[in-house]
Design brief:
single chain; 98 residues; alpha+beta; two-stranded antiparallel ribbon; 33% helix; binds zinc ion
């Protein structure tokens, strides 16, 4: 079922985390946070309330790339961590209403 998925080892994950730290310092990321919109619940936050989230988690083979990292509020981040990313939807998502 998951044979196509690369399971990362510790070194892979450490490398991706280092990349994430670099990316967090980039203008690209600062601009994203300045908008203050959580990717998942679409609510507005101040930039220091947003964290960097990997849409596909590093532990599932996700990479630190611009198309896989999004600003995410702390509430969504902690809710998402306890679910599989493909199963998880924020309760307050506007796209989840019908
Ligand atoms: Zn959120």
């Amino acid at each position: 079922m998951n044979e196509f998925m690369h399971i990362p080892d510790e070194d892979d994950i450490r490398m991706e985390k280092n990349k994430a730290r670099e990316l967090r310092r980039s203008q690209w990321w600062k601009r994203k946070c300045a908008k203050g919109i959580c990717y998942y619940c679409k609510n507005q936050f101040s930039s220091n309330e947003l964290t960097m989230d990997h849409i596909v988690p590093l532990s599932r083979g996700g990479k630190t790339e611009k198309n896989n990292v999004v600003p995410c509020c702390k509430k969504c981040n902690s809710e998402k961590k306890s679910h599989l990313f493909m199963d998880w939807r924020p309760a307050s998502s506007p796209e989840n209403n019908g």
